[in-house]
Structure formats: C-alpha cells, structure tokens
Design brief:
homodimer; 278 residues; alpha/beta; 9-stranded mixed β-sheet; globular
Chain lengths: 278, 278
C-alpha cells in the first residue's frame, strides 16, 4: 500500500512523490515516480534513477530536468531514497558518506547496519514489486541509471541482474568502490573487512567476474569533477571492460563538474539511450 | 565590484552565482547569471527572471530547466534575489509574504522599509548597471519575466520602463496586487494606505494608465493553481488589456499548479518568445 505525498502535473505527465512501509529497510520510505502522458494508453517502460550521497528522492526530480524528454519518449522514472532513515542506529547520521543518505545500494551484513541498510534488495525486489503493482509500467522493459554513489548502484545492480535491467548508464559513477576512500569506508562498515565480499558491490570487479551482454554501458564523466581523481576511477572500469570485452561508451565532458548542472546538460542523451534499448 | 560564489558549466555555458554590496538595499545581495556559450563571441541579449515569495536567486537556476534553451538561443538570464536580507528591521522575517523574501519589487516609502526595501530601483538601475558592466550582454536587448510575485514584478517593471524592456512574460503572476490579500498586505506595508500610490505597482492599473506598445504580453496560468482564485486575478488584467487595446496572450494550462513543475513545462515557450522579440 502506498501513500501519495504530492502530485504535480509536469510536461503533460505526473511527477508524484509517494511513501510506503518497507520490510527491507524497516521504516517508511519515500520514492518519486514520473509517469509520462503515454501511460494513459497502457504500460510504459520504466527507468530507475539512483541518487548520490546525501540525496533523497527529491534531488533528481527537481534539478535534472528529465521530465521533458521522459514525457516525449514515454518513459516512467522511479527515484528511490538513498538509505533507510530514522532507524536510530548509533552514529547513523554522523557522517555524510555513511549511514543515513549513504546506503551505497548494498545489503549490509555487519550489525547494526544489517538491520535496514538493505538498499540492494529494497530496490531490486521490494520497490520493484511495489512499482509493478501500483503503476502502469512494463516490468519487462526496465533500465537503470544514477549519479556518483547512485551510478555505482546502477552499475552494480544491472551487472548482478542482467535479465531484469536491459540498459544501464551513469553520471560520474564510483567505478571501483573497493579502491577509493568513499567505497572503502562504506564497504568496510556495511560488509566487514573481508574484501572478497566487496566484489559483489564493485562494478569493476563485477565486470571481471560476470561480464555484461547488454548494450554498451553509457557513462558521462565531467572533466573538472572535483572527485574524479580520488573517488571515481573510471580508468579502472575502462580497463576491466577492455580486458573482458564489455562495450563501454565513456564520454569525458571537459569543464563539467559533479553537480546537477552537469547531469541536466546530458540527461537527454541518457534518456534517449535507454529508450532505444528498452 | 562583484564576488563569485560559484560557477558551474551547464549546457556549454556557465551558471554563476555572484554577490555585491548594494547601495539600494544596504546589504550584500546575491544574484545568478547564466551565460550561454554564444557569449564567447560577443554580447548576447539578456533576460531578467524575477522569482516569487520565499525564493532566492537559487530556485530558478536549479529547478526551471531554462539553461538548455537559453544555451540554444544564446540568451543570458539574470536572477536577482527577492528582497534585502539581514537588515535587522523589526519583524522583517516574521511572515513569508512580507519583508525578507517578499520585496514585491517596489521602492518602499514607509519607514522602516524605505531603508533597503527598494527592489524596483535595485533591479532597474543598480543591478542593471552591474550586469552591463560585468558581463558581455547587450543592454539594448533586454526582456523580463517572472513567477507569481515575480510575474507581478516583471509586468510592472516592463510597463513602467517600456523603452528598456522590449518583451515581458509571466507565469501565474499576481495581476492586480491592489485587489488581492498578498498585494494589499505588501502595498500597505511598503507604500502606506493611500491606494493612489499603489497604481505604480499594479500591472492592471499600469495597463490602464500607460498601456503597452511592445509585443503581446505572454502569460501562462495553471488551471489547477491553488492561488488562482484568491490571489492572481488574470481576469482583471485581461479586462484592462481588452479595454485599452493591449495585446495579451494569456494561456490557461489545464491541470497545472503553481510549482516549478509548471514553470519547467512551459519555460521553452517563454524563452523562444523573448528570443524572437529581442
């Protein structure tokens, strides 16, 4: 059962925000859904957008300017929150890059985070079912994309469930979380110190372990992104894709940074990419 | 002298936020400027966007999705703040519809607001000069538009300075502030109880008193706008335009509300309108 928080008409479709009580996270979760005007005539393909650190379901829908092209192409867009909220776990809100707003799209195995910090199962199973049951979407035509931590989430989820997600793209994703400060902190905290367990949540490792048979992965990366050198490491993903024959369309965009101004500038390309592959 | 707060590359141009010390308002004011890529080759036409109640220079640049089409058409867009801030006047932050964030684009004549609440002169003179001196804009090709309180601001400023502002448009403007609760509160507070003084800041009265020789005024109004009946009164502006032969293109957009989702849905039309008339 979902509760409607708000609905706004936008480009002839509806931008909604909803909530539901989640079993996976053990709390009430918000999510946003844009339904294009074409949904009046029957099920439409659906894209999942995963946001970055500190974000909620709100950032993308207000800042990315995606509704215009989604309405034109007839795509639904689902935007989950980025973690459980309000569980009251010790230290859950102490840092911007771990805990609240920083679920990293994993199923945590280390206490206390194993209770509720289960964004992987939340997005791939629970929310997936809720969306399929509550909105006129075609659950056989699903793509996924995201930004930064959410780019990591989109890549890892698609690589782990290639039969569900037909297309994947990302903006400035964390390409190798096992080898950057953000990822090492999160994966240690959620999964423990055994790095073999991390490979399930590292896009570069997943390319090595599982490959990808879908359409070429599309990634846009700003050339002036303040996190490019220290956190994102697209070169590691590129090397893995080359070694394992996975097609990757990595576009370095000179002068662009890590912000939503960068995302907005190229969102149309990503929506067209997914529409062509769904 | 202006200070750069931030600059982000966006659609090949630059979305900047700046500040300067204003003589008119007696405080440091922020403003945003989008410069399209065409500005590299010489001066470009410039649009002023005036925001609504509670807004700052930030709302439009992050939510309206205007940069895409401004970059295509080669338009600069300047977004001022909506009032003086931090003057410490008694009660200045007590309500959302008067004082801070609610300057109503007037030059106040009633103490203590007459000190600093001078957004009309700030925008038409001081900021205008700062922009002309600091950015490659063509000060002979200027249009103005805005939303709600800012739609009122855009209309009244254009009607009072028709030789400066060649084109004017608005989203859900307060069309007759002398005859709605928001406007009556603001005009009483800033200008006093003598309603004859209010006519200088009421678009409907200005149409009656001065007319408009420029291109047809473009207004979009959401049909499901929660403020339509009580505050906005486009029918009064329509009647005045009809009576005085002023061309008005008022478009009622069924189902749309007062939000930025409405603005984003039709911003392209407004940018094309201004570009065609500048």
């Amino acid at each position: 059962m979902i509760t409607t928080i708000s609905q706004n008409k936008c480009f002839g479709g509806t931008q909604g925000v909803y909530s539901h009580v989640s079993q996976e996270t053990g709390c009430t979760m918000r999510f946003a859904v844009f339904m294009p005007p074409q949904a009046k005539d029957g099920p439409v393909p659906v894209l999942y957008w995963l946001s970055g650190l500190t974000c909620t379901e709100e950032n993308f829908i207000s800042k990315a300017g995606a509704q215009r092209m989604a309405a034109e192409l007839g795509l639904a867009i689902v935007c989950p929150d980025t973690s459980a909220r309000g569980l009251g776990l010790p230290g859950e809100a102490d840092s911007y890059d771990f805990g609240v707003g920083a679920g990293f799209y994993v199923d945590a195995t280390v206490a206390p985070w194993s209770r509720g910090y289960r964004m992987h199962s939340y997005i791939t199973q629970e929310l997936f079912s809720v969306i399929a049951a509550s909105f006129p979407v075609d659950a056989a035509r699903v793509g996924i994309f995201g930004h930064s931590m959410g780019g990591h989430g989109a890549l890892t989820i698609a690589l782990k469930h290639p039969s569900v997600y037909r297309s994947v793209s990302a903006f400035a994703p964390i390409c190798a979380p096992a080898r950057c400060p953000w990822g090492e902190k999160a994966l240690t905290g959620y999964l423990g110190v055994d790095r073999t367990a991390w490979r399930e949540y590292d896009a570069t490792a997943l390319i090595e372990d599982r490959g990808w048979q879908g359409p070429a992965i599309l990634i846009d990366q700003g050339g002036s992104d303040q996190f490019l050198e220290t956190q994102l490491h697209p070169e590691l993903l590129t090397q893995a894709c080359q070694r394992f024959g996975v097609p990757l369309n990595l576009r370095l965009q000179p002068g662009y940074d890590h912000s939503y101004y960068f995302i907005a500038s190229f969102i149309e390309d990503h929506l067209r990419f997914h529409a062509a592959n769904l």
